[in-house]
Design goal:
By secondary structure, the chain is α+β, with helices and mostly antiparallel strands. The chain has an eight-stranded parallel beta barrel, surrounded by four helices. The protein has a six-stranded antiparallel beta sheet with strand order 3-2-4-10-7-8, with no helix packed on it. The radius of gyration is 25 Å and the shape is globular. Mean pLDDT is 94; it is low at 1-7. Bound molecules: (2S,3S,4S,5R)-3,4,5-trihydroxy-6-oxo-oxane-2-carboxylic acid. (2S,3S,4S,5R)-3,4,5-trihydroxy-6-oxo-oxane-2-carboxylic acid binds at residues 208, 386, 451-452, 503, 541, 588, 605, 607. Residues 208, 386, 451-452, 503, 541, 588, 605, 607 line the site of (2S,3S,4S,5R)-3,4,5-trihydroxy-6-oxo-oxane-2-carboxylic acid (GCB).
Length: 647
């Protein structure tokens, strides 16, 4: 990262850069929150659904399905939102469907939203996979390229056109991946009618999780006044006992505006305030935001209330938005990762948004269960492998002190054609959207721009140099990484990252069954990479598949014993290297997850230390033992949290 010699000046420069970068996109993407001036109406529940199974998947557009009720266009089924549609029915053609699917829901909108012209009504889709088009009462309001990130459109004028009608929302979603999407994929048509049915095609993907599709996160309608707080950017810092919250508020729709910014502690007491749209709030006797197991009260959050008084041609408005703010710093040296200037060791997991029936659909019970499991096992961090997770998950991380490496969907970039400008430009746009969405989360300490790209290919250097520099310019306050495969030590992007993240599977994909190679090969890996780049290293993936309940001693591949020994052998090496430059270890994977069908996958990837239903395998107890031990060694735990403890 940048020079730590003049931290004050450095932070100010960072702040300006982040404020400027935040302006690259037209608008902010604040998480919708209710307040005295804002209402939120969640549209979770049953939607009408129809997959377009016509040969070219274009019948919905040819026949303009968005113009009438979906049920009038043909047969529809009930589809829960949010959820992937793939595992909801018994129909294999829907599970493996590729192309356009159509969702529709009618909503009765509160009368005030219609009568009050000073109210702005916005539709927001938390995420839909992959390409989406949204219509309201038959009129297209927006389209969005890419899953895992939110998009919005203003719809007030449309719902006011005919207040006697309910508001009909139609969303078409297409999960087709191309060489230019993130993640990339390609459609392969096979015309040999002696072997394949007419029109046969497959979606080739180069990543190891099922390409679940549909509306994955909640769809909302929310309101703001027509003059409103559009975006807030905060960058935090501290000196001795005084915290600093550098902030900037962006306003839209106002001809004149004044703001009042109030920072409140957990008990609601004002600790600092200002009447400027940007500036610095100083917090004496600051409660810093600390990671879980690094402090007795992790995840301390202040509330920053922004109160806007604004006028436009028509009237005056008050808008109130409250942002949770954790005050902390992040920095990197050649051997350490520092949070609040203290060494932080990542002992955590890689996850997926994945579960039975729901696929990648947002689900509160699952999320809360996962957080309880993370805390039970003493994990202090995770990587959002291999795409941005729901904002609600990051909010949980902020509150519980779980540290996040925030990864974009740059996974499976293996084809040389995916390094062309069109792909790069989309990748840059996705980073803009990701940073815009997640920049204010204290839990997010690093951006990951990709996972295991074919970084040995010649165009990779320009591609990743551009991407990493762009991300650093967007947010100079956080380190940037991308995740390498250990076999590419001649990695073309590695010189540009702040932290080296390496995935390796010794005695699994290489030398299968030979547990004895792990100490040597892992040691060689670390020495090679550190020797070449002199940057701190995270073992960002390691592990082995274990089919739950499969046992053998001596251990054999796919048994719980084998998975255990792989982990233990790696841990011995980690223990040597963490005294030097290893700054973290993230198991692959937290839980079993679904993949495409193939000869190396037994109903999905079984490298979870928990099953897909979140029951522990033997490996989970190994990690629990280890993570609590690491926490006791490296954290500053009060006696009551020492392992063993009951959470
Ligand atoms: C990897 C990938 C991850 C896979 C994992 C595996 O290197 O990053 O997406 O699931 O290996 O189990 O093969």
């Amino acid at each position: 990262m940048l020079s730590p010699e003049r931290p004050g000046l450095f932070r100010v420069l960072c702040l300006f850069a982040l404020f400027e970068a935040a302006c690259l996109l037209d608008t902010g993407m604040l998480f919708p929150r209710e307040s005295s001036s804002r209402e939120v109406k969640e549209l979770s529940g049953l939607w009408s659904f129809r997959a377009d199974k016509s040969p070219d998947r274009n019948q919905g557009f040819d026949k303009a399905w968005y113009k009438s009720r979906l049920r009038e266009t043909g047969p529809v089924i009930d589809m829960p939102v949010p959820a992937s549609y793939n595992d909801i029915t018994q129909d294999p053609t829907l599970r493996d469907f590729i192309g356009w699917v159509w969702y529709e829901r009618e909503v009765v909108v509160p009368a005030r939203w219609i009568t009050d012209e000073g109210t702005r009504v916005v539709i927001r889709v938390g995420s839909a996979h992959y390409y989406s088009i949204v219509w309201v009462n038959g009129v297209k309001v927006t389209e969005h390229n890419g899953g895992h990130l939110p998009f919005e459109a203003e719809v007030g004028s449309l719902i006011r056109k005919d207040p006697t009608q309910p508001c009909r929302i139609t969303i078409a979603v297409n999960n087709t991946l191309t060489l230019e999407t993130l993640p990339p994929g390609s459609i392969q048509h096979i015309d040999d009618i002696t072997k394949y049915p007419k029109g046969f095609f497959v979606q080739n993907i180069y990543f190891d999780f099922f390409n679940y599709a549909g509306i994955h996160r909640p769809v909302l309608l929310y309101t703001t006044p027509t003059a409103y707080v559009d975006d807030i950017t905060v960058v935090t810092d501290f000196l001795d006992n005084t915290g600093r919250v550098n902030y900037k508020v962006s306003v839209q729709g106002a001809t004149t505006a004044t703001v009042k910014v109030t920072l409140m502690d957990k008990d609601g007491h004002c600790v600092a305030s200002s009447t400027e749209p940007f500036g610095v709030l100083k917090v004496v006797d600051v409660n810093l935001w600390w990671p879980y197991l690094m402090h007795e009260s992790p995840g301390y959050l202040y509330s920053m209330e922004v109160r806007l008084m604004a006028a436009n041609e028509r009237s005056t408005h008050e808008d109130v938005y409250t942002l949770p703010v954790g005050i902390r710093t992040v920095s990197v040296t050649s051997t350490q990762f520092l949070i609040n200037k203290k060494p932080f060791y990542f002992h955590g997991v890689n996850k997926h948004e994945d579960s039975d029936i729901r696929g990648k659909g947002f689900d509160w019970p699952l999320i809360v269960k996962d957080f309880n499991l993370l805390k039970w096992m003493g994990a202090n961090s995770f990587r959002t492998s291999h795409y941005p997770y729901a904002e609600e998950i990051l909010q949980m991380c902020d509150r519980h002190g779980i540290v996040v490496i925030d990864e974009c969907p740059g996974v499976g970039i293996k084809d040389i054609r995916s390094f062309r400008n069109a792909s790069l430009n989309h990748h840059l746009d996705v980073m803009d959207e990701l940073v815009r969405r997640d920049k204010n989360h204290a839990s997010v300490v690093m951006w990951s721009v990709a996972n295991e790209p074919a970084s040995e290919m010649p165009p990779a250097e320009f591609y990743f140099k551009t991407l990493i520099q762009h991300t650093k310019a967007l947010d100079p306050t956080r380190p940037v990484t991308y995740v390498s495969n250990s076999h590419y030590a001649r990695d073309k992007g590695a010189p540009y990252v702040d932290v080296i993240c390496i995935n390796s599977y010794f005695s699994w994909y290489h030398d299968p069954g030979h547990l004895e190679v792990i100490p040597l090969q892992l040691n060689t890996q670390f020495e090679n990479w550190y020797g070449k780049y002199q940057k701190p290293i995270i073992q960002s993936e390691y592990g082995a598949d274990a089919v739950p309940g499969l046992h053998s001693d001596p251990p054999m591949m796919f048994t719980e014993e084998y998975q255990k020994v792989v982990l233990q052998s790696c841990h011995d090496v980690f223990d040597q290297k963490r005294k030097q430059y290893l700054i973290g270890e993230l198991i692959w994977n937290f839980a079993d997850f679904m993949t495409v069908q193939g000869i190396t996958r037994v109903v999905g990837n079984k490298k979870g230390v928990f099953t897909r239903q979140r029951q522990p395998k033997a490996a989970a107890f190994i990690l629990k033992e280890r993570y609590w031990r690491l926490a006791n060694e490296t954290g500053r735990l009060p006696p009551w949290t020492k392992y063993p403890c009951s959470l």
